[in-house]
Specification:
Layout (H helix, E strand, L loop, with lengths): L1 H16 L9 H23 L4 H11 L2 H17 L3 H6 L4 H30 L6 H29 L5 H15 L11 H8 L4 H11 L8 H32 L6
Helix pairs in contact: 1-6, 2-3, 2-6, 3-6, 3-10, 4-6, 4-7, 4-8, 6-7, 7-10, 7-11, 10-11
Length: 261
């Protein structure tokens, strides 16, 4: 029961603390206007070039943009403790480490899911695409699994961020890499072989493929493999992130560098 309280209340409190130094209104341009602008930009480029359909770009970019809140939000909730000089206090507490980490990811995942669903619906409406409730429900499931995968990568980024001065730079670089490798705007068969291969081992590629299949009228049975692959990637990255955080915690304790910036 104590672990559950730490997971839920602690996670929400940490997420709210992000807005101690920035106004919540920053979410409007960064997580609502920007994804919609990205969707419209690539959709109209695709129209002008005569490649793919509007649905291809709407689904791809809506799912891909969930990477930004998942990567940056997850890393910020962890690295922010160091910047505020509270990391040592948190790690000195007897609270279960797994509950502390998972609690910081849950609000971020909900944020990423909301951003992607908003982009999918708003982009479809603006471009005159039909929004079917049944299809939207299955697409939301694919987005949720993709968000899980990105959050796992965000934990790895958070662990690395404990040794970096500016985690925003790393998150932005990872966001660009995912944009290139996931096939959000370029069909993956058209990508250079090494980029397509990298996408197989990164979050989003499988999730975007599943969401596109569902948007085309496919059922959940036809995307089970992609969803399973995306979930396994998220689990693998998440476990790696937790282990890296634990290892860096031990090394930082011995070096007395927990709160150094």
């Amino acid at each position: 029961m104590n672990s559950l309280r730490i997971l839920v209340i602690g996670g929400l409190t940490t997420y709210r603390a992000l807005f101690n130094w920035v106004s919540p209104w920053i979410l409007v341009p960064s997580l609502l206007v920007m994804p919609l602008a990205q969707i419209l930009l690539f959709s109209y480029i695709g129209r002008s070039a005569g490649i793919e359909s509007d649905t291809f770009f709407v689904v791809g970019n809506a799912v891909q943009y969930s990477a930004l809140p998942c990567l940056l939000g997850t890393a910020s909730t962890v690295v922010g403790e160091r910047l505020q000089r509270t990391l040592g206090i948190v790690l000195a507490s007897p609270a279960p480490r797994l509950a502390l980490v998972i609690g910081r990811t849950l609000p971020v995942m909900l944020n990423g899911l909301a951003v992607s669903v908003f982009g999918l619906v708003a982009g479809s409406v603006l471009l005159g695409l039909p929004v079917r409730p049944a299809t939207l429900g299955l697409a939301t499931l694919a987005i949720a699994v993709s968000v899980f995968g990105c959050t796992g990568l965000g934990l790895v980024s958070a662990a690395v961020g404990l040794r970096l001065r500016d985690i925003a730079v790393l998150s932005t670089i990872l966001f660009g890499i995912l944009l290139l490798c996931s096939g959000a705007d370029i069909p993956r068969p058209a990508l250079p072989g090494w980029l397509a291969a990298a996408g197989d081992w990164l979050p989003l590629a499988h999730g975007i493929a599943a969401a596109r299949s569902v948007a085309a009228g496919g059922g959940i049975g036809g995307v089970g493999g992609d969803l399973a692959a995306e979930a396994l990637l998220g689990l693998g990255y998440g476990m790696a992130g937790v282990l890296m955080l634990r290892l860096l915690e031990r090394r930082s304790r011995s070096a007395g560098a927990l709160d150094l910036t």
